[in-house]
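SEVERITY: medium
COMPONENT: batch folding queue
REPORTER: lab tech (J.R.)

DESCRIPTION
The queue accepted two submissions in a row. Attaching both inputs and their returned structure tokens so the on-call engineer can compare them side by side.

ATTACHMENT 1
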Amino acid sequence: MKLSLIVVFYLFSWDVIAMERNTGVIDKLIQNSNYSVELWEPRGLIPSPTEVIISLEKTTNEFLISLRKIHLNDGLTSEQKKEQIQLLVDQLPWLDFDTEEREFLADTIAPAIQSVGFNPWSII
């Protein structure tokens, strides 16, 4: 009986740890300033105006929050999750940004999509 409880506890703990790992990338991106001025230079870019950076951050965070909800929805199959993520990506305001900003946005959300088990470059 005692061993069974230990095994059940271990299995439950492993699921919690695994879930945290899968959302850790998303949570970190939500907390980060993903488009801060110092991140533009390594890309060989002059930072966009402040209002554009704010829009990129807002767009990214809204996407990440929705992505997290989809990922944690146990009522969806993997295929349904992929379809919903594709819809989220398609609904991003891509045309509000210039080419470099769109690439920056795609590069920023790609690790989050990958962290939930999908190839971001087949979706973005």
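ATTACHMENT 2
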Amino acid sequence: MALSEIQQAEVNRRLGAFCDARVPPRAHEVRVGFRIESTEVVLFEERPAFQAPHEWREMAVAKFRYVGTQRLCQHRDLCWHA
């Protein structure tokens, strides 16, 4: 079941504030963002590509999944943690 509108608004509020505070406005070489995909939220970092600096490359930092009453988070080791 996908996240409700209330849950999506909460994710946008919290992770939006986190991403805004994470990178100073003067830093143009890195961006932090997130996207909501059904029951998952992916937190990612973007940097310019090495050989094509006008293209940005995305690297997943964490993935959060809503499963009823459980709270799970997938870290870089690709394992799910409570």
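NOTES FROM REPORTER
The two ends are 19 Å apart (CA to CA).
No errors were logged for either attachment.
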